[in-house]
Amino acid sequence: MAAYKKIETSAPILGTFLVAAILSSNAAAMDGDAAKGEKVFKKCAACHTVGETAKNKVGPVLNDVFGRPAGTFADYKYGKSIIAAGEAGLVWNEEELFIYLQDPRKYLRAKLDDKKAKSKMTFKLKKEQDRLDVIAYLKTFSAPMEGEETEETEEKQSES
Ligand code: HEC
């Protein structure tokens, strides 16, 4: 009986560990497919554009979103919460986007620790693989981030 009790009380802790493990394994892998992501982006394209002719629509242009502080694309009128998150230091990268895209409002509420935080983006991209793929696609419209491994640095590492 005592043993059973012990398992029961440690279950939530185990759960937290599992979530952390899953999140970090995603962060490490992040193996999205840009070609598939282009198809996923059709869902975003109702509100967002990328490429040379990109313009702000319902949502901001998503060129160079990697490394961009949240809520700062020129001439786009962001919601207060995402601006606050950017001012608090949020810079978009793969890990942050992966969580944001799943549920932007929930994400901003957690980031700002504010139950009333709002997102102007109501769209949620639930499927994990879709998020990885669309992130890989968006990356092709962003310059490589500082410290990021390019093929060149990988080659250098394998030489040494
Ligand atoms: C129904 C319209 C709509 C759809 C669909 C949509 N978004 Fe958004 N998105 C927005 C709006 C509006 C904002 C501005 C959020 C705010 O101000 O709170 C935004 C913000 C963003 C941001 C933050 C940009 C910045 O400069 O900080 C990213 C990244 C983003 N969207 C990615 C995506 C991706 C990827 C998809 C498709 C999987 C998508 N969005 C689908 C409307 C949309």
Secondary-structure blueprint of this entry?
Blueprint: H1 2-29, H2 34-44, H3 80-87, H4 94-102, H5 104-112, H6 128-139, H7 151-159
Helix pairs in contact: 2-6, 3-5, 4-5, 4-6
Bound molecules: heme C.
Heme C binds at residues 43-44, 46-48, 58-60, 62, 65, 68, 70-71, 73, 78-79, 82, 92, 97, 101, 119-123, 125, 134.
CATH superfamily of the largest domain, called what?
Cytochrome c-like domain
Beta-strand portion reads: under 5%
What is the CATH C level class of the largest domain, in words?
Mainly Alpha
Tally of individual domains? 2
Mean pLDDT comes to 85
Q: What is the molecular shape? A: globular
Spans of at least 5 consecutive residues with low confidence: none
Question: How do the helices and strands follow one another from N- to C-terminus?
Answer: HHHHHHH
Question: What's the end-to-end separation, in Å?
Answer: 56 Å
Assigned CATH architecture of the largest domain: Orthogonal Bundle
Total helix count? 7
**What hetero molecules are bound to the protein chains?**
heme C
List the quaternary state of the chains.
single chain
